[in-house]
Amino acid sequence: MVESPPDHPLIACHDCDLVYQETALPPGGEARCTRCGALLYRDTPACVQHSLAYCSAALLVFLLVNTFPILELETQGIHRNATLFGTALTLYQENMAPVAALVALTTLLAPALELSILCYLLLLLNLKRRPPGFAELMRLLQLVRPWGMVEVFLIGVLVSLVKLAHMAHVLPGLGLWSFGALILLMAASAGAFEPHEIWRQYEQCPNR
């Protein structure tokens, strides 16, 4: 068994499993696999602060998405509005439980869990504290992320908005605009999130 020196740990490419000895990077630099070209790690010392800022803003916007209507419809004097939770509930009441569960999972539960985990981990790391259950939550985060499909739901809402416009007077609600902002903030948070740097800062935190 070959052991890496303490100051040069080993790192494996997540795409092709080729093993490298980790080396220091220049500011803003990145290391890529010489075999497949996959990104190994980047020099992003401020990734915790940047990701926390985007994630905190996304969590606040997520609350707006679930508080205000996505669409407001008016037809024949009848005024209705649709919220995200109300959409899933209506689908369930219309005997479409599998679809309702899928909508709730991909637009409510998965994003809420992802943002909660991120804010918890990043906040404690920013305070120079080791988050309890760090490794388990990082693995759970990787499992949850593919299930968050708010952008797919937004596309579906926009298609419905065009079709409903021929049958009723439709107004986009604050929830719809918040949905767009949520997608941008979650994308920015994912772009700023660097797992390699997150693990490094976790290992540097004192045990307490």
From TrEMBL:
Give yes or no: UniProt keyword Oxidoreductase. no
Pfam families named among the record's database cross-references: PqiA (PF04403)
Please list the coiled coil stretches.
none
Respond yes or no to whether keyword Transmembrane helix is given for this record: yes
Q: Identify the keywords attached in UniProt to this record, alphabetized.
A: Membrane, Transmembrane, Transmembrane helix
* Residues passing through the membrane, by range: 52-71, 99-125, 146-168, 174-193
Record protein name field? Paraquat-inducible protein A
